[in-house]
Amino acid sequence: MHTSRFSALILIAFTLYACHSPNNKKTEKTMEINDTHTYAKPNDAVITHLDLNIQIDFNQHQISGTASYQIDHKSKGKEIIFDTRDMDILDVVLDDGTKATWTLGDADEFMGKSLSISIKPLTKSLSITYKTHPEAAGLQWLDPQQTAGKKHPFLFTQSEAILARTWIPIQDSPGIRFSYNAKVQVPKGLLALMSASNPQKINTDGEYNFVMKQPIPAYLMALAVGNIVFRPEGLRTGVYAEPEIIDKAAWEFAEMEDMLTTAEKLYGPYRWERYDLIVLPPSFPFGGMENPRLTFATPTVIAGDRSLTALVAHELAHSWSGNLVTNANWNDFWLNEGFTVYFERRITEALKGKTYAEMLAQLGYQDLVAETKRLTQEEKAADTHLKLQLDGRDPDDGMTDIAYEKGYALLRHIEKSIGREKWDAFLKNYFNTNAFQSMTTEAFLDYTEDNLIKGNDSLRKVLNMKQWIYEAGIPDDIDIPHSDVFEKVEQNISDWQNGKALGELPTGNWTSHEWQHFLRKMPDTLTLQEMQQLDEIFHFSKSGNSEIVALWLELAIKHDYETAYPVLDSFLVNVGRRKFLIPLYTALIKTEKGKKMAMDIYRKARPNYHSVSYNSVDELLGWKAE
Ligand code: BES
Ligand code: ZN
Questions:
Q1: 18 preceded by cis ω (within 30°)?
Q2: Which tens digits make up the pLDDT trace of 76-104?
Q3: Residue 193 forms beta bridges with which residues?
Q4: Chain Cα centroid distance, residue 365
Q5: pLDDT digits (tens, 9 = 90+) for 337-381
Q6: Is 560 helix (H, G, I), strand (E, B) or coil?
Q7: Burial class (CB in 10 A: 0-12, 13-18, 19+), 461
């Protein structure tokens, strides 16, 4: 790591002395004002509005155009600083019509280059003309054969955490918000969509106009272009997808409108007007991304039985936790994801009942235990703190299941300690009071002091938040989700292991989550014959449920069940969702035979993967360009 990376950054830390304890013992808190993952100095000059005017060139794999900004020039100083990466800056013009002088800083692998623009004391806006590089990490350009329809190309962006700067020169910090308008020119016959007000039909000239009037941070900037059609779900909700899959997609996500009204009943009005979802091609590296007004989703949640739609509840929940009250800093990532998992499970509980929601919570707890164990073994125990320390690192590195599941567990522990009614009232207030603002972990702690703990020493002790947030591992006071249904699944596994025929197990009404639990709890000692039997009776290799196939393929690798290898091959070549790729490649490289298979498959699969996924797999496999 270069030390020069931070030479331009000032980390202002100041210490607050709060006297919440009745014995007047002062609590010391350090608050980071600056985000070390941006070059911007928002206290000097900050963007407030973006007018984006871009052309999308599928032949060159290039976005080009101008990003015009209104700025708040607080310091009346000499410059404003933007973040850029994988792009060329062509020209910068100030509002008085003069060309500005500008300089690019040294390139950092993940921070990119700072763009310092000389401005005048009275400068209120400026325009940056730029073009992106074909390998821009936040863009994935798909050839027609990588789409469902195979006839048209497709483009989608992924800006979180710090990739917005690879397709727009921008102040790329979650603590900097701006509204935006955009004009996007795409090839005729394609539709463009953004995290903004959206068209519902392809037009003839390929020019689309967008408005996002609520201020958002850069990581929520998003664009998708392709042969896309729209299908309404409810009054405020609908689904976009390629025409080949729109019927299946519209059926799968039919609960969207109910989820939206349920969420509002819990934590207050939805502030973004419409809530739509686009199903992307299978190379999308995540399950979902909470782009405001338009969730981006993987097609691997289309299981045909609506069993994986908690993902929609999750991305919708971000419309409050994350998009409304936003982590100020990537070190506070748990404020986005932990709150969202909690909210997601509350929506799911309200719609599908406690038994169902507790299955999901138990699966999440298993993930938490596994992730904590992995990080501890890899001597990364500090990454099991809720409050992360990502300075000088690629934020993508430290974003693990901890933020999600330990974050969830903390909020569940608070709920259990103070009661649901009080906790819900607190949360509703929290979202309202802090709407469209950023939040640090320390400000959250202060907020709980003022609005929940209110000097109650014994409550503070029971909540034990400092340990949860600043210490490693899983605190003893965790409320472990319990599922009777899963206990029955385990009973069935042991009945089978004790001689009962597989076909006799009462699996007829099992939900896909019971099947997930079943596969996760398979004994290490499975024989090839048992693998065969399992497949013959339960048809795991042919399952249309990606979560089940992925778990099954992991078992197949572990027990060298070769029959499933063709399925493994095509799964890894077609699906680019990182959460599935990592466990499968990890299992493969444990043996020499598997390692060879991994390399052979990866050679074919890598061109299909998004940079987020191939960067992770490259590292895992020690891949070098051939
Ligand atoms: N915001 C995340 C995706 C993300 C996280 C992108 C960090 C880049 C950096 C999104 O809301 C998310 O959490 N997606 C999950 C699905 C969810 C159901 C847990 C995913 O993609 O697996
Ligand atoms: Zn999330």
A1: no
A2: 999 999 999 999 999 999 999 999 999 99
A3: 224
A4: 19
A5: 999 999 999 999 999 999 999 999 999 999 999 999 999 999 999
A6: coil
A7: exposed
**Residues in Cβ contact with 425 at an 8 Å cutoff, skipping those fewer than 6 apart:** none
Read off the pTM. 0.95
For the record, the structure tokens of 453 come out as: 């703990």
Average pLDDT over residues 562-574: 98
Q: What's the CA-to-centroid distance between 575 and ligand 2, angstroms? A: 20
| Alpha carbon 617 to its chain's center | 18
Residues 68 and 126: beta-carbon distance below 8 Å: yes
Give the atom of ligand 1 at the shortest distance from the alpha carbon of 290: 11
Q: How many CB atoms are located within 10 Å of the residue 68 CB?
A: 18
pLDDT of residue 34: 79
- Which residue's structure tokens are 């929506």? 347
Considering only CA atoms, which of 318, 344, 361 is closest in space to residue 255? 344
602 close to 585: Cβ distance less than 8 angstroms: yes
CB 266 within 8 A of CB 344: no
Residue type, position 516, single letter = Q
Q: How many residues does the chain have?
A: 626
| Cα gap 512→29, rounded to integer Å | 45
* DSSP H or E stretch at residue 498: none
* CA distances for 371 relative to 32, 122, 314, 376, 383, angstroms: 27, 51, 20, 8, 10
Give the tokens for residue 375.
């990080």
* Nearest alpha carbon, ligand 1 atom 18: 311
SS (H, E, C) 410-438: HHHHHHHHHCHHHHHHHHHHHHHHCCCEE
Q: What is the pLDDT of residue 350?
A: 98
Is 4 exposed, middle or buried (CB count within 10 Å of its CB: 0-12, 13-18, 19+)? exposed
pLDDT at 33: 56
Asked if residue 323 lies in contact with residue 307, where contact means CB atoms within 8 angstroms, the answer is no
| Confidence band for 24, pLDDT divided at 50, 70 and 90 | very low
* Pocket flag, ligand 1, residue 318 (CB < 6 Å): yes
Taking residues 539-553, what's their average pLDDT? 98
CA dist 567 and 550 (Å) reads 10
The Cβ-side half-sphere exposure at 206, using a 13 Å CA radius, reads 13
Q: If you compute the radius of gyration of the chain from its CA atoms, what whole number of angstroms results?
A: 25
Smallest CA separation from ligand 1 atom 8, residue: 160
Mean pLDDT of the 509-534 span: 98
The pLDDT of residue 26 is above 70: no
Counting ligands in written order, the one closest to the CA of 339 is: 2
Distance (Å, rounded) from C-alpha 518 to C-alpha 4? 51
Tens of pLDDT, residue by residue over 456-465, are 999 999 999 9
Between the CA of 76 and the centroid of ligand 2 the distance, in Å, is 38
